[in-house]
Structures are given as structure tokens and as C-alpha cells.
Write a structure and sequence with these properties.
The complex is a heterodimer. Chain A has 22 helices and nine strands. Chain A is mainly α. Chain A has two domains: about 35-180, Fumarate Reductase Iron-sulfur Protein, Chain B, domain 2 (Orthogonal Bundle); about 185-495, no CATH class. Chain B has one domain: Transmembrane di-heme cytochromes, Chain C (Fumarate Reductase Cytochrome B subunit). Chain B is globular and about 65 Å long. The chains are: A mainly alpha, B mainly alpha.
């Protein structure tokens, strides 16, 4: 694919709120799903003839099923509080990338068809008919939202543009205009079991390879088990963890933590994917279908606990929605929350003192932490609000000597999205991804200059992939993004030695 | 003329009450299928009440956002609140003590309200981002409120209205026994605009008043792992 032509924004010390530039990103679009991506998700293969009526009908359906959708469309007073909060607006200057600007693309149609004022006084209240042009705008701009919820933090009514984007995408998909990237991936999950389309044997092979790598390096037979019935813990992790850098280093780290904690754990081919792109496309039904695989795997393997690996939106679906979508989990050990985050698990073990950690192993790095948007603003870790900020940092600080936060208004609940979340992590959206990364890149550069930070840790597969790709656009190194459990992996001292017969390849005829 | 105004206020009250009730019922009946509090969120119901209180009384989220908008809108809303409380004396007899006590502050509150509205109006014109998202109704709504506040202040400072007569009129309205309204320009303007405001409230963005209380990102408890949350329509999916 030809590289999109656009200019990477220049980094300066601050991200100034730009003057608006209408239409600056109107050209941005992404590939439309083909029938084979649409139909497995129960969406029409192509744009339906009566798309106008069907779209309005779908909007009515969503209005009756989602309180958020209805209340948010009614409540906005256009105060402007959100207008300078979206990373995509800050990076592109396009007013339709202001959260309220984006919402209004849908709100104006809602008003026209569903409100008294919009039906009889459309001009007065900014209501508009659903036309081909509006539909194109929807497709373009609702795929320039990463559903990161930053706007919802600052809205006096908590209006969350993510909810509007999800609804818009569901309306689009239901009239046959789905997004190829998300829907192809969901279809792959249904067919093969994970986003990357790794079949069971490939997975087994990869995990065996990891066992060998760890054994070669540390001389300890750390296991990366797959489909082990009767294991205590089912680990569900994004499939990127199985091979992409730096994700896989994180997976190696989870395995070492489990090993040292002395627990029995397993991965599963049935639930070989933590990600749930059903959320991105706003489809409860698809999100539920994807989630049910986790329940199925837990039942199939008879595990007692479920732990999720490092992934932002996956943790949102897991933490906030899994109990709703695939619960109740009364067949699991009631002593543990369902599900748990791997950072919660690791931090518990650190607190218990089961892990020996040699911080100096990470002395070649000075770390900062990127709060992944969905983890920060849509989930929790631990028992107290804000645990999602503290626990990953506690883990990092337990395994690294050098740590500095980025500026206060770019972390915690005010964190900026990496620019690639919400179903935007595709090459056809490279321009918006690069431009949307501007606020995060600015904060990173500042902490590099001021505190000598060399690496940024994250707990999200999308963040890691996005930064790997985008850091070079800003003149930084792709290897500066690391997994939190990669740091744990480097610092952990493997004290639980294993008998030689457990070593990978033991007893095989091997000359090398 | 007084009869026209009596009718206008009866109609306005009915529209306001029924319109608002209809929306509240609609919001209450629409399920929130997923747990979506903006986190960090309270983990108890009491915590949610506190969060909502801070949001409604102090505009916590707006405070985090832009200080100018916060100052103007807080001035306006708190001013309006005190002014409304002060107005209670026009409708009840005897005047309750708290209402009597806030009377002197009512005037300042009136000024704060109009000043806040003015600030919001200027912001809407001069900040390009806010101008971009403004429809004609957004300006008109501010103007409507400004004129209501302005005409109200006029009655105190420029053309004194016969308040006793007004009180008799509204007292008469409650008992449907009729009464005469003093025909001052300021009062007529004030009452007309208030009636207009009451009538458009349930059909406009003023629905943010009930809306905030139904906003799932603000009113939900962060307890999704502990307590299963299931909407009625989602339950049906499980049964099929």
C-alpha cells in the first residue's frame, strides 16, 4: 500500500489549541467492509437500497435500548468544554474532530427526525436531513474517534463521544457500510479464534518456542501451557502477545510471574484473544458473542480464575462488561475478582513477597508510563478508585530504579489516547493516527528532555502497536515503547528451579 | 389582558410539567445495558450521590476543563438559583424564613446571573470553536435568559412594579379566582419571556437539567465485577 502523503505535526513544548480549519480531515476514510466481513457479524453485505429509512429506524432502535445515547443526544448545551480535549482535534484542527463537532454530525439528524424542535424548526436548532453527504461524513469522522472517553471527563454532563461513535458505527454497519478493519477481524475471531488468525497448532508452536527461548536464556523451564484442563488460572491475552514486539516480551513476563508465584495456569485456543472489537463497532450482540468464548474456555478447562493480559479496551470489556455479557461467573473461585488484570496479579505477588526482583536489570532504562485510555477512564484495578493508575506504576517502580511521570494533564484520567485505539489501528488511517498522537508525543518528548526518560511502558496491545509505528514519524525510536511485563520479565529472578526432565526438548534427539 | 396572562401561565406550567415528566419517564424507562461510569468512579451508591452533588452544585467536570466557562456558567446558574428562591415570596404567604433571609442577596444574584450569561454569550461569539458549534437557538437561549434577568432587574431599579398586585395575581391563579396584573412594560416582558422559557424547556437543550441525573457515565457505581448488571433486552438474548 502506498504511504499516505501528509505532514507529521512538529513537536514543540506545548500543544497549543489550534484555530479551527474546516474540512482539514474530510478526506480521511477507511476501507469499507466486504460482504465476507459483514455477513458473519449479521450485517448486510452491501449498502442496502433503503439505507436512509433503515438508518433512521436503527437510530430509533438504539434510542430505545441505550439510555446513554438518548440522554447524551438531548443534553448537550454546546458549552464548548470538550472542544479542545480531543487529541484528534489538537492534531488536525478539524472542527468535526472536536467531540461536540463529532457528536453533532449525529445529533443534527437525531433532532430532525426525533425531536419536536428539529421537525418543525430545523434551521433554528441546527437539525438536518440524513443525506448521502451526511452519511459520508459519519463514515469519515466516526472513524476518526478512538472512543478514548477523554471528552467525557470534562463534560459537565458526562457526555461520552465514544457512546455516540459506537452508535454511529452500528447504524452504519447495519445499513451495510461497515469498516473493513474491525469487521474483518471480528469475522476472523469467529472463524479462527483470534484477531490475528493464528490457528491452534501455530499457537502451540509459538508457545513451545517461547519456552525454549526462556530456557536458553535463564536455564529454567518456565512453562507456557495451552489448553491445560484443571489449571487454576485461565490467561486471556491479546493475540499480538503471541509474536509481535514488544508484546511478546510481556507474555514472557506473565509466564515468569506465574512460574515464580507457583500457580497452575493455562492459555486457551478457544479464548486465544482478549481483544473485543465488538465494542469498537458498538454492537452488543457481537461483543457478547466474542465474550462468551471466555466463558466457554473457562468452563471447558475447569479453571478457578480468569486473568487478562495487557490490553486496554480488552480490559474495559473484561472489567466493565464481561460479567454482564458472559456472566455470572459463580463457577469460579469466589475469593478472586472475575476477571483480574495481570498487573493486579503481579502486584499482589510483589506485595506478598513471592517474587525476587532485581531492579538493576532495568538500569539501562529510564521509564515513563502511558496510561491507556480505556484502562484509565473505563476500568479499575484493585479495590480503590484510581487503582488503574497506581497498580501498573507500582509494578514498574518495583522492577525499575528510574521512573518519571509525564506532565500531570496528560496522565491518569486526563491521559491522551495513543492515537490508534477504537478500531483505527489500520494503515488506511495512518494520517489520523500520526496526527492524533501529537499530544502524547509532545508529553513524551518533554519528559525525555527534562528527565532523561528513554522508554515508555504501556499495558495495551493497541498502544504498543501504534507507538511502534508512530514514534519514528516523530523522530523517535520504535523500541522506546515497552510492555510493563517486559520490564518485570527482565528484573524477575527465577528461583524456582526446575528438574532437567522438564526442560524443553528433554529426551529428544538433539545435536545442537 | 390579565386573563390572557393567566391562561398563558396555566398553559406554560402544564407544558413544562408534562413535557418534563414525559422526558424523565422516557429516560428512566430506557435501559442502560452496560456499565460505563467514567472512571475513577465511586464504588458505592453514597459515593455516586456525592459525585452527582459535586457535579450539579459545583460543576466539577467543567471546573476541570475551562475556568472561564466554569466561572460564567457557575455565576449564571447559582445566580439563577438564588433569584428563583427569592421569587418564592411572590407565590407563598407567609414567606418562609429562609426565603426572607436571602432577599438581600437576590439582587446581587440577579447581577451575577446576567453577568455570567453575558460572559457565556461573548464566549460563544469570540471563541472560534464555540462559535462553530453554535446554532441560532444557542444564542437565542442566552438572549432569552439575559432579557429575563434584565427585565427582572429593571423592576427593582428602574420601574418599580406593584409587587403586592403581582402576588395577588399569582395567588389568584392558584385558586383560579382571578386577579389583575399591573401592566408595566418590564413586568410584561419578564413574564412573557419566562412563559416562553417554560414552554421551550422540555423541547430544548435545557433537557440537560434532568439529563445530568440520568447520565450513566456519572450516575453509575463502579462495581461491575462484584454485581452483575443486566438490561431487560439483554436478558432476552440469554433466554433465546
Amino acid at each position: 500500500m502506498a504511504k499516505a502523503k501528509f505532514e507529521t505535526p512538529e513537536l514543540s513544548e506545548f500543544v497549543d489549541v489550534p484555530n479551527i480549519e474546516e474540512g482539514a480531515m474530510a478526506h480521511s476514510t477507511c476501507f469499507v467492509a466486504k460482504p465476507e466481513h459483514q455477513e458473519p457479524l449479521n450485517f448486510p453485505g452491501e449498502r442496502v437500497e433503503d439505507w436512509h429509512d433503515k438508518a433512521i429506524e436503527k437510530m430509533g432502535d438504539l434510542l430505545s435500548r441505550y439510555r446513554s445515547f438518548r440522554v447524551y443526544l438531548d443534553s448537550c448545551v454546546k458549552c464548548g468544554s470538550c472542544t479542545d480535549k480531543c487529541h484528534y482535534f489538537l492534531g488536525t484542527k478539524d472542527p468535526k474532530n472536536m467531540p461536540v463537532g463529532r457528536q453533532d454530525l449525529l445529533r443534527k439528524v437525531y433532532r430532525r427526525y426525533f425531536t419536536f424542535a428539529g421537525k418543525y424548526f430545523p434551521k433554528l436548532v441546527g437539525a438536518a436531513d440524513l443525506t448521502e453527504e451526511v452519511l459520508d461524513d459519519w463514515y469519515s469522522y466516526f472513524h476518526q474517534c478512538s472512543q478514548c472517553r477523554r471528552c467525557s471527563v470534562f463534560c459537565p454532563y458526562g457526555i461520552d463521544t465514544a457512546e455516540i461513535s459506537m452508535a454511529a458505527r452500528e447504524i452504519l454497519a447495519s445499513v451495510g457500510i461497515g469498516q473493513k478493519y474491525c469487521n474483518e477481524i471480528i469475522a476472523k475471531v469467529y472463524k479462527i479464534g483470534n484477531n490475528l488468525g493464528l490457528p491452534g497448532p501455530a499457537l502451540a508452536d509459538t508457545l513451545e518456542g517461547l519456552e525454549e527461548d526462556v530456557y536458553d536464556e535463564d536455564g529454567v523451564a518456565v512453562k507456557y501451557p495451552l489448553n491445560v484442563k484443571g489449571a487454576d488460572i485461565l490467561l486471556v491475552t491479546p493475540s499480538a502477545d503471541f509474536f509481535a514486539e514488544p508484546h511478546v516480551d510481556g507474555l514472557i513476563g506473565y509466564g515468569k510471574v506465574f512460574h515464580e508465584a507457583g500457580v497452575n495456569w493455562t492459555l486457551s485456543t478457544t479464548a486465544s484473544e482478549a481483544a473485543n472489537f465488538g465494542m469498537f463497532i458498538g454492537s452488543y450482540e457481537n461483543m457478547r458473542r466474542i465474550s462468551l468464548r471466555v466463558r466457554e474456555a473457562a468452563l471447558e478447562l475447569g479453571v478457578k480464575r480468569i486473568v487478562f493480559g495487557e490490553c486496554g479496551h480488552a480490559w474495559r470489556v473484561a472489567y466493565s462488561f464481561l460479567n454482564t455479557l458472559a456472566g455470572p461467573f459463580d463457577f469460579l473461585d469466589p475469593d478472586y475478582p472475575v476477571p483480574q488484570h495481570i498487573c493486579e496479579f503481579t502486584w499482589n505477588e510483589i506485595e506478598k513477597g513471592t517474587l525476587e526482583l532485581d531492579k538493576s536489570e532495568n538500569d539501562d532504562k529510564t521509564l515513563t508510563f502511558h496510561d491507556s485510555c480505556n484502562v484509565a477512564r473505563a476500568t479499575r484495578m484493585g479495590d480503590t478508585p484510581g487503582g488503574q493508575f497506581d497498580i501498573p506504576r507500582n509494578v514498574i517502580k518495583a522492577v525499575c530504579n528510574n521512573y518519571h511521570d509525564m506532565e500531570w494533564d496528560t496522565i491518569h484520567e486526563r491521559t491522551f489516547c495513543c492515537g490508534g485505539g477504537g478500531g483505527l489501528l489500520t494503515d488506511d488511517l495512518m494520517e489520523i493516527r500520526v496526527k492524533g498522537a501529537l499530544p502524547r508525543m509532545t508529553a513524551l518528548q518533554n519528559v525525555m528532555n527534562e528527565k532523561g526518560v528513554t522508554h515508555m511502558a504501556a499495558i495495551c496491545a493497541i498502544c504498543k502497536s501504534q507507538f511502534t509505528k508512530v514514534l519514528p514519524y516523530y523522530g523517535m525510536d520504535m523500541y522506546q515503547i515497552v510492555s510493563v511485563h517486559q520490564l518485570v520479565s527482565d528484573a524477575i529472578v527465577l528461583n524456582r528451579k526446575t528438574p532437567p526432565e522438564e526442560a524443553p526438548g528433554y529426551g529428544e534427539d538433539d545435536d545442537d | 389582558m390579565s386573563t390572557v396572562y393567566a391562561l398563558l401561565f396555566i398553559v406554560a406550567t402544564i407544558v413544562l410539567v408534562l413535557g418534563l415528566a414525559r422526558k424523565i419517564v422516557q429516560y428512566a424507562k430506557t435501559p442502560a445495558p452496560l456499565k460505563i461510569p467514567t472512571t475513577p468512579a465511586p464504588v458505592t451508591q453514597t459515593g455516586v450521590v456525592m459525585r452527582m452533588f459535586r457535579e450539579v452544585v459545583f460543576f466539577e467536570s467543567l471546573f476541570k476543563s475551562t475556568k472561564w466557562t466554569w466561572i460564567f456558567s457557575w455565576m449564571f446558574h447559582m445566580g439563577l438559583f438564588v433569584v428563583l428562591a427569592r421569587h418564592v415570596r411572590y407565590f407563598v404567604d407567609p414567606v418562609p424564613l429562609p426565603i426572607a433571609l436571602i432577599q438581600p442577596f437576590g439582587i446581587y444574584a440577579g447581577f451575577a446571573m446576567v453577568a455570567g450569561l453575558g460572559g457565556l454569550f461573548l464566549r460563544r461569539i469570540f471563541v472560534d470553536r464555540v462559535r462553530y458549534i453554535s446554532a441560532p437557538s444557542d444564542y437565542l437561549m442566552l438572549l432569552l435568559l439575559i432579557f429575563i434577568g434584565f427585565s427582572g432587574l429593571m423592576m427593582t431599579f428602574l420601574i418599580h412594579t406593584d409587587v403586592v398586585m403581582v402576588k395577588q395575581f399569582f395567588g389568584g391563579l392558584f385558586t383560579l379566582s382571578g386577579g389583575e396584573l399591573p401592566m408595566d412594560f418590564a413586568l410584561i416582558m419578564h413574564l412573557t419571556l419566562v412563559a416562553v422559557l417554560m414552554i421551550i424547556l422540555p423541547f430544548s437543550k435545557l433537557l440537560h437539567i434532568p439529563g445530568i441525573f440520568f447520565s450513566p457515565s456519572r450516575n453509575q457505581v463502579d462495581n461491575s465485577r462484584e454485581k452483575r448488571h443486566l438490561a431487560s433486552w439483554a436478558k432476552k438474548l440469554e433466554e433465546s
